[in-house]
Structures are given as C-alpha cells and as structure tokens.
Write a structure and sequence with these properties.
Layout (H helix, E strand, L loop, with lengths): L1 H8 L8 H11 L3 E3 L6 E3 L1 H20 L3 E2 L5 E3 H4 L3 H7 L4 E6 L2 E9 L4 H11 L8 E10 L13 E11 L2 H22 L5 E4 L11 E8 L5 E11 L1 H6 L2 E3 L5 E3 L1 E8 L1 H10 L16 E5 L7 H12 L5 E3 L6 H11 L3 E5 L1 H5 L2 E6 L5 E5 L3 H26 L1 E3 L3 H10 L3 E6 L3 H11 L2 E6 L19 E6 L3
Parallel strand pairs: 3-7, 15-16, 15-17, 20-21
Antiparallel strand pairs: 1-2, 4-6, 5-6, 7-8, 8-14, 9-10, 9-22, 10-11, 11-14, 12-13, 17-18, 18-19, 21-23, 22-23
Helix pairs in contact: 1-11, 3-7
Length: 479
C-alpha cells in the first residue's frame, strides 16, 4: 500500500499551488513530456488520444455544416505576410523565420506559419473567379509555431496542434452568419462533449484578432477562477480581400470583393479539461472525450476464472463503450490509484467472490461513489452511468463558474474583487480603450468578452472611469 499511496502524494494539492498541481497532473498522467527544444512539448499516447477524440468530433460537426478539409504549406514568404499590415504587426513578435535552405541563404526569408490567413488569401485570389465558385468553406488540421516567451504544456507552447477554418463568401451577411455559426458550434461542442460551460461573446477592438473586423470568443472558467479563451471565430469583412485582390464576378457581371472568416480551436482544450474537472487525485475526464471510458480491474486475477470473466465482460461492454482490462501484475490498490490519476470515468472491479454472486463493483471517478451491480444488469447500467457522469460533470462545472461571477459597480470594488475573489467580474464599460489599458496595468485583468446572453445593465457608469457606460463586459485574469 505504500507504493499505492506514493502515486497520489506525488501531486501537489491544487489549493496549495494550482500551477504546480497542473504540471504534476500533466506529467503524472503521462499526457506530455518535455522535449529538447525549449518551449515545445512531446504529446504522449494518453494525451494524443484525447486530442484525437476532440479532433474527430469537431471534424464530424464541421462537415455537417459543409466544411471541407484542405492543407496549406508550413512556410509563408515574407512578402506574402507583409500584404496585410495590421495582421503582420499583430504576429511579428511571435514569428519564427527560416533564412537558409541547406547550405544556401534564401533569397527571401520564410515564416513558419503562426496562422494561415495569408496562405489562404493567396490561394483564393486565383481559385475564386465567379460567384459560382462561392462560398469556399475550408478547414485544415495542422500545427503552428508561435515563439512564446513563457510556455506551459497545452496552454501555451511554441508549437501546438489546431484546426483553422478559412471561408470566403459573396456577401457580408453570409460571412457574418458563418462566423456566428462556428462560434456556436464551438460552444455546443465544449458544453456537450467536454462538459465545460462557456460564455459566448464578442471581443473588444483592443482584444480582437489582428486584421479582423470583429472577433467572437467562448470563454471558460478554470477551477482557480482564471479565464481560458477556448475558441475564437473572426469576421474579416473584405479587408483581407482588398489587400490580396480576391475578387469575383457576380451574376450581373460586376467585379466584387469576397468577404472572409476564420475560426480555430487548439490543443489548449486539453489544458482546459484538466483545469475545469481535475482534482487532487489527478485527471477527471468527461466520458464522451475519454479515450478509455471503463477500466476493468480483476481482483486476485491469479485465481481461476477471474481474468476470463474480466475478458468476457470486456467483450460484452465493448459494444457499448470504450473499455480496457488492466491485467498487469500491479496490486489492485496501485491500479485504482493509476486509473484515478488518468481520469478514467468508470472502474469495474471483479474478483472471485463477485463471480460467485454474479455481480461486480462499479466506481465513479468523478464522485468516488461505489455500487454493486449484477452481471446481467451491466449492459444497461454502464451506459446510463456514463451519461449521468457526463451530465453531472457539466452541472458541477457550471455551478462552480456561476458561483464565481461577481458584479463590480466602481473601480474600488473592481480592484477588491480582483484581489480577493478570483473569477469573472461583470462591470460596465464606456467603450474607451484607455480604461481597458488602465485595468490591465493596475490589476492584470483583461476584458474577456461582451456577452451575447447577458445584457443586464448593472450600472450606468463605467467601472473604471465613472463616465456613462455603453456595454456590460466580462473581465478576468486569464491564461
């Protein structure tokens, strides 16, 4: 039992040091390892399996809306990147450059893509000629490089995996509709699949994507009260089209510019899952995204019939969920601690006495609740429990978030909340960027979004300067 206990003791308590707790979980659950390239991570099988489930489910949802997958080069010529001034200025501090090919200096430096707007624009200017060519609704799954100064596995690394959608439309209205459609798709995915509640809203001009007319976001609250931007959707208007001369002939033979969007989600979602649902025993994975939903642990597996029964149960239940048998030679206690660390939603324990009584024990990872279930009831009970766990995890995360949303009516109250009550702060805003800058400088809190579903006027004055207020903003510290 000493060994069993040691596995759990290796995790720092989240209340003691949340940042260290996060690092411990990422490492002990074997999601990533550090690479010899500073700021880059090796995603191990347990971590990549979660990403595969995220990717597959998102891809399925994308295709239901007419999205097609493509792939663009990893390199962007410097001259191409320079065509959209605001865009290149926004990414300049994070860009990595290639200046040599083999032994020769390149005639033009190549940027390692931080994002692919310019590549898609360069492609669209030749591929789109007529209104019959529209819309273009493309997405690519790839990695991108951003030379971050401070990194943390999944949350911020110099290379990460993502998807980036890039669409072109005949009208501003169509582009806006697609922008909002994809934001809502992201929000539904997070809530339905990751059991992670989000706030949907629009970024302020200060926080919007470089080169966009408008940026829309979903913001999730982590266990420590900090926000995590979990997905964004950008309405580009015709700004990129004018910079890259992306024009089409309409049905009246008139030349017009296209309207564009882009939208993306990344491997930082895995970090969000950890920080929204995890506990001091490790990961807690929502069943729908969990690579293994049920782990069968045979007790006294050296006894005749125990391992056979475990395999028999796996055969039956594998038709209903993703199931494995832990038939390693580790002690049951070690196996329990290990499966808890890895966040497997449901554990099934079966030993000689259970077999005699035609029953087994099911244990929920999220609550620790144990129940005895007859073998002939398992095919009904396991799917029912997995669905219950998924729903309960969402409701707990939502209750935690709602409990940590506070109202601020003036600047003293705002600053007090930032220091003493981690979470989202609802505060009115005058619309002046100077107030955003002051809040960030004084408190490190930033505007997270102008929420879609919360238009309550909690005050007629800006929470920062006291001037007449225009909009309700969700503020908070963020990862």
């Amino acid at each position: 039992m000493a060994k069993d206990k040691k596995l759990v003791e290796a995790i720092t308590s989240m209340e003691e040091d949340f940042a260290q707790w996060y690092t411990d979980v990422v490492k002990k659950a074997e999601l990533v390892d550090y690479s010899s390239v500073k700021g880059c991570m090796i995603i191990k099988p347990a971590g990549f399996a979660i990403w595969e489930n995220i990717r597959n489910e998102l891809d399925r949802r994308f295709k239901e809306t007419g999205v097609e997958n493509v792939y663009m080069p990893v390199f962007i010529p410097e001259s191409l990147l320079q065509k959209e001034k605001d865009h290149v200025e926004g990414f300049a501090p994070e860009v990595a450059w290639v200046t040599k090919g083999g032994l020769s200096e390149l005639t033009e430096p190549l940027c390692v893509r931080p994002t692919s707007e310019t590549l898609f624009c360069d492609f669209y200017k030749n591929d789109i000629q007529s209104y019959r060519d529209l819309p273009k609704v493309y997405n690519q799954w790839c990695s991108v490089v951003r030379w971050e100064k401070e990194t943390r596995p999944f949350l911020r690394s110099r290379e990460f995996l993502w998807q980036e959608g890039h669409t072109a439309h005949a009208t501003k209205e169509e582009a806006h509709e697609r922008t909002i459609q994809m934001l809502n798709l992201y929000a539904d995915f997070c809530e339905e699949y990751l059991a992670m509640p989000v706030v949907r809203g629009q970024k302020t001009d200060k926080e919007k994507f470089a080169g966009a007319d408008a940026t829309y976001t979903i913001e999730a609250m982590m266990h420590d009260g900090k926000a995590l931007q979990s997905g964004t959707s950008h309405d580009f208007g015709d700004g990129f089209a004018k910079s890259f001369e992306i024009q089409y002939t309409d049905n009246e033979n008139k030349l017009k510019y296209v309207y564009q969007t882009s939208w993306g989600m990344t491997t930082r979602l895995i970090g969000a899952i950890i920080m929204v649902h995890g506990d001091d025993s490790g990961l807690v994975l929502p069943p729908r995204v969990a690579p293994t939903q049920l782990m069968i642990v045979p007790i006294r597996q050296d006894k005749d019939g125990v391992l056979d029964k475990a395999m028999e149960l796996k055969g039956k239940l594998s038709l209903l969920c993703r199931v494995k048998v832990d038939d390693s030679d580790k002690s049951p206690g070690w196996k329990f601690a290990e499966q808890e660390m890895r966040g497997i939603p449901l554990r099934l324990e079966v030993g000689p006495k259970d077999i005699e009584n035609s029953q087994c024990v099911l244990v929920r990872r999220d609550t620790g609740e144990k129940m005895t279930v007859a073998f002939d009831e398992l095919e009904d009970k396991v799917p029912e429990l997995l669905e219950q766990i998924q729903n309960d995890m969402f409701e707990r995360a939502k209750a935690h978030r709602d409990k940590h949303i506070y109202d601020a009516h003036d600047y003293d109250e705002f600053c007090d909340i930032v220091v003493n009550k981690p979470g989202f702060i609802r505060g009115m805003w005058c619309g002046d960027k100077a107030c955003e800058d002051k809040i960030k400088e004084d408190t490190t809190a930033t505007s997270r979004c102008i929420p879609f579903e919360d238009n309550e006027v909690i005050s007629d004055k800006c929470v920062c300067c006291g001037k007449p207020a225009k909009k309700l903003i969700y503020w908070g510290k963020a990862y």
